[in-house]
UniProtKB/TrEMBL annotation, chain A:
<feature type="transmembrane region" description="Helical">
    <location>
        <begin position="189"/>
        <end position="209"/>
    </location>
</feature>
<feature type="transmembrane region" description="Helical">
    <location>
        <begin position="81"/>
        <end position="101"/>
    </location>
</feature>
<keyword id="KW-0813">Transport</keyword>
<keyword id="KW-1133">Transmembrane helix</keyword>
<keyword id="KW-0812">Transmembrane</keyword>
<keyword id="KW-0472">Membrane</keyword>
<dbReference type="GO" id="GO:0005886">
    <property type="term" value="C:plasma membrane"/>
</dbReference>
<keyword id="KW-1003">Cell membrane</keyword>
<dbReference type="InterPro" id="IPR050809">
    <property type="entry name" value="UgpAE/MalFG_permease"/>
</dbReference>
From TrEMBL, chain B:
<feature type="transmembrane region" description="Helical">
    <location>
        <begin position="28"/>
        <end position="52"/>
    </location>
</feature>
<dbReference type="GO" id="GO:0055085">
    <property type="term" value="P:transmembrane transport"/>
</dbReference>
<keyword id="KW-0472">Membrane</keyword>
<dbReference type="InterPro" id="IPR035906">
    <property type="entry name" value="MetI-like_sf"/>
</dbReference>
<feature type="transmembrane region" description="Helical">
    <location>
        <begin position="203"/>
        <end position="228"/>
    </location>
</feature>
<keyword id="KW-0812">Transmembrane</keyword>
<dbReference type="InterPro" id="IPR000515">
    <property type="entry name" value="MetI-like"/>
</dbReference>
<keyword id="KW-1003">Cell membrane</keyword>
<feature type="domain" description="ABC transmembrane type-1">
    <location>
        <begin position="95"/>
        <end position="294"/>
    </location>
</feature>
Amino acid sequence: MLGNVIAFRRFRPGGSIFGEYWVGLRYFKMFLADPTFWNVFTNTLVLGGLTLLFCFPLPIVLALLLNEVRARRLKRFVQSVSYLPHFLSIVIVAAIVMQLLSMDGTVNQFVRAAGGEEIAFLQRPEWFRTIYVSSEVWQTVGWGTILYLAALTTIDDDLYEAARIDGANRWRQTWHVTLPGIRPTMVTLLILNIGTFMAVGFEKILLLYNPLTYPTADVISTYLFRVGFASSNFSYAAAIGLFEAVIGLVLVLSANLIARRTVGTSLW
Amino acid sequence: MVTVDAAERATEVGPRPRRRRGIRQTRGYRVFQVVNAIILTLVVVVTLYPFVNIVARSMSHEAYIIAGQVNLVPRGFTLDTYQLVMSDPLFWTNYRNTVFYTVTATLISIVMTTCYAYVLSKKHLKGRTALIGIAVFTMFFTGGLIPNYVLVTSLGLKNSVWAIALPNAINVFNLLVMKAFFESLPVELEEAAAVDGLNTYGILLRIVLPLSKAIVATMVLFYAVAFWNSWFAAFLYMDQQELWPVTVYLRNLIAGATGAENIGAIAEANEVQAEATLKSVTIVLTTLPILLVYPFVQRYFVRGIMLGAVKG
């Protein structure tokens, strides 16, 4: 972590790992004036926001649906299957995505069957966000239900009974008993999700993007990767990385604070 | 262990009978049950389809794939591409590397995590809060890619297993899970052992660890899967193709990058048209080990994550 100091110093490959001399905020000023930086910054926020929008609530929905299943075998089967993608390497996920979206892949077979023209999905910037978020949902939604399912079993039966006596139908029971019952879990996971907001799937984007999709796919972490390793501008890249990490930390801390003030649940 | 019970109930036994709310079921609820079953079936289909599709592609003849006619079943069944990939020595070298890296890194990780967690579980330790704080802080704020790279390179770890194992040796989540487990063990047990003349290491090795087999096994699984799946560290720090793990092999194949020409040359030499099937076959061969062990280890993972969530 101390190595972050090179963000403030001139770094020379082969020299000291802490850099040569102080340059102050030069690198920070540099990227604030860099138009590419603002593009990747926006992309990061959009991709992070979309991921949060879908990957946070969908496991809750799936958990609630699973919770209503009476047939135990069916439930276990659905659970086992939906956890599976979580165990795959990100490389495999990216490879599968590429196969499904290739010109001769399944998705384009559908497009053709619907009378459309094949689309080179991975070369089109306007598709990248959809591809990224849906593959993220595919990989994480099942695994995300585990904690909610555990929380659901801890809700007191008496609460449901009381709600029924008060004339609540099932929707109202879900709304007034089930959801408040899993609220601490929801808040905790929301804060954790916000913590990874800025670091949006760096490895996956690195595998899936290409120069054609940079306008929507390039995020802070991939940009700094290229700045660092393709242009060997280590100090500049470290400054961008530090900036990103600080924003991430601020986000977590404020989410935690807001959660503690408003709903009384927090990580620490 | 109350929490593990809760976990088991949630994942294995299913909900308690209270789900039968009321004796009569409304019509609306019956409709909901049907719709729910349909939705969940769709979830299963959507989750599994990509796997089936890849397997089908891997066994199909190139021509059918290019024509876009392969979905669920192989067309023009052939296993030639499997032979092709398996005859690439680099593929096997890389596979061996994956196994070697996974075993080494997991060993290092488990030893380091156990030691750190055990120390942290001792309430009388001076500076305990600070030590925990340091660990947790890294969950939310890390050194960053470039400083890490500079550090690892300047330590001379490039092109060695250490570059993969050391920077990721302790996963904070796993650490907290283990710490919570050690804390749940009765103190009296260790006190009795101390009275009987065991020193600290003796207590850890002969009393605590035998009682912690379950958690250690879970941690080994967590680490092993993470290292098996990892590619980025190797991609960053290994610049010779003989040192890559198989994930990097696959990455270069799908990215059409250097190193992939090797297998391309083999394909050409054998006069096999296999560009499209090649990727599918490699995906299948790299995924296979995980798919094979998955049914057996799945519940340990669920238990592990539950422990961490409830206690950590």
